[in-house]
Specification:
Blueprint (H helix, E strand, L loop, with lengths): L2 E3 L9 E6 L3 H13 L2 E7 L3 H10 L4 E3 L2 H5 L6 E4 L3 H13 L3 E4 L7 H14 L3 E3 L7 H11 L6 E10 L11 H4 L3 H17 L4 E10 L2 E2 L10 E8 L4 E8 L7 E9 L3 E6 L7 E7 L2 E6 L8 H11 L2 E4 H17 L3
Length: 341
C-alpha cells in the first residue's frame, strides 16, 4: 500500500469538513458527500451570496464565514474541500495542508508542476490525504476500459486517441485569463484525458511531445501565455506508445460534446465514448476485428464518486499517498510541456 494511515481506526468515523467555494461544482460535490458519505459540513467560505444560500440549504447547521482563513483555523476539521477558480487552488490547498487538514481539490491542483510539487511536499510533510477531482477516472466506463487493458485482453497498447470537444466552453471570465486559469482547453479538458490514458498505461515516462495550440483560429507560439481554445498534441512514451490528444472549446461539432478515449492493442481495442453528445453518459466498448462488445452503458451516477473515495479513505485514517501524488505531478509535468514551460 502506498497510503499511510494517520491513526488506527477500526470503524469509519464521521468526518467534519470545511468547504471553500460552493458554486455549481462545489455544491454538487457537497451534496454527494452529504447524501452518500458519513460527513458533516460545518463551515463554508463563499463570496457569492446566492451560492452560499443554496449551499446552506444542503448543509443545515454549517457556519458561513467571510474568508478561507477562517476555514483553515476552524476547530476540529478533518478535511477541506476546495472548488474555487484555478488560480486559487495551489495557495488554498497548500495552506490547508500546512494547517494539518486533508484536502480534496477541484482540478487542476496547480497551474504549473512547480505549484503541484509544493502541494505534494506539504501533503507528505504533514502526512495528510490529498485528493484531486479527476472525476472521469471513476466512471464505470473508464473502469471497464482500465480493467480490460490491465488484464491483457487486447495485448500491448501501441496507440491511444484522445478527444474532448466542449462546444460551449466555460461561462466564467477567469477561464479565459491565462494567469488565472493556467491554460485553456488543455488545462480544463485535456487534463482528464491525459490522466485516463496514462493511468491505463501505468504512467510511463514520455520521450517526445509536440503541441499545436490555437486561439480563435490563430496558432499560439510556445509559452505565449494566452488561453488556447483548440489543441492538437502528439506524445510518445518510453514504451513507444503514441498518444494523440485533441481538445477544444467552442468548436463546431454538431453536438454538445465529443469525449473519447480509444486504446489500440496488438490483439484488439477498447474505448470510452460519450453518448449523444452528453457530458455525463458514457459507454465502454471492446473491439476485435469487426466484432464489438458493449462493456458498460448508462446509467452511472459518477460525478461525485472521486470525492466519495477520498472521504472513505480519510475516514479510515489514510494520509499521504505517494502513488497518487506521483501521478498528479506527472500529469502536471506533461501539461507544462504542452504549454512550452
Amino acid at each position: 500500500m502506498t497510503e499511510t494511515r494517520t491513526e488506527k481506526i477500526t470503524e469509519k468515523k464521521v468526518l467534519t469538513l470545511g468547504f471553500i467555494g460552493v458554486g455549481w461544482i462545489g455544491r454538487n460535490r457537497m451534496e454527494s458527500l452529504i447524501n452518500k458519505a458519513n460527513i458533516k459540513p460545518v463551515v463554508i467560505a463563499e463570496p457569492c451570496k446566492n451560492n452560499a444560500s443554496e449551499a446552506l440549504k444542503l448543509a443545515s447547521g454549517a457556519v458561513l464565514v467571510e474568508s478561507p482563513d477562517e476555514v483553515y483555523e476552524y476547530p476540529g476539521l478533518d478535511g477541506i474541500v476546495i472548488a474555487t477558480p484555478s488560480a486559487l487552488h495551489a495557495s488554498q490547498a497548500l495552506t490547508a495542508l500546512t494547517k494539518g487538514k486533508a484536502v480534496f481539490c477541484q482540478k487542476p491542483l496547480g497551474r504549473t508542476s512547480t505549484e503541484v510539487a509544493q502541494i505534494i511536499q506539504a501533503s507528505k510533510e504533514k502526512n495528510k490525504l490529498l485528493g484531486v477531482d479527476l472525476s472521469y477516472r471513476n466512471t464505470k466506463a473508464f473502469q471497464a476500459v482500465f480493467e480490460t487493458i490491465n488484464r491483457g485482453d487486447i495485448g500491448n497498447i501501441h496507440a491511444v486517441d484522445l478527444v474532448f470537444h466542449n462546444t460551449y466552453g466555460p461561462d466564467k471570465d477567469w477561464f479565459y485569463d491565462f494567469n488565472l486559469a493556467g491554460g485553456g482547453c488543455v488545462m480544463d479538458l485535456g487534463i482528464h484525458l491525459i490522466d485516463m490514458a496514462f493511468a491505463c498505461l501505468g504512467f510511463p515516462e514520455m520521450t517526445h511531445l509536440s503541441s499545436h495550440l490555437y486561439r480563435k483560429g490563430n496558432k499560439l507560439e510556445s509559452n505565449q501565455e494566452k488561453v488556447e481554445d483548440f489543441a492538437k498534441v502528439m506524445m510518445l512514451t518510453e514504451n513507444d506508445t503514441s498518444i494523440s490528444l485533441e481538445c477544444s472549446w467552442h468548436s463546431s461539432t454538431g453536438k454538445d460534446a465529443i469525449i473519447e478515449a480509444v486504446f489500440h492493442g496488438a490483439t484488439g481495442g477498447v474505448s470510452l465514448k460519450n453518448i449523444n453528445g452528453s457530458f455525463y453518459d458514457f459507454k465502454a466498448e471492446k473491439y476485435q476485428g469487426t466484432q464489438k462488445e458493449v462493456l458498460v452503458m448508462p446509467p452511472d451516477d459518477w460525478s461525485g464518486r472521486t470525492g466519495l473515495l477520498w472521504a472513505e479513505q480519510l475516514a479510515l485514517g489514510f494520509g499521504f499517498n505517494s502513488k497518487t501524488a506521483s501521478e498528479f505531478l506527472k500529469t502536471a509535468l506533461i501539461i507544462d510541456r504542452i504549454y512550452g514551460r
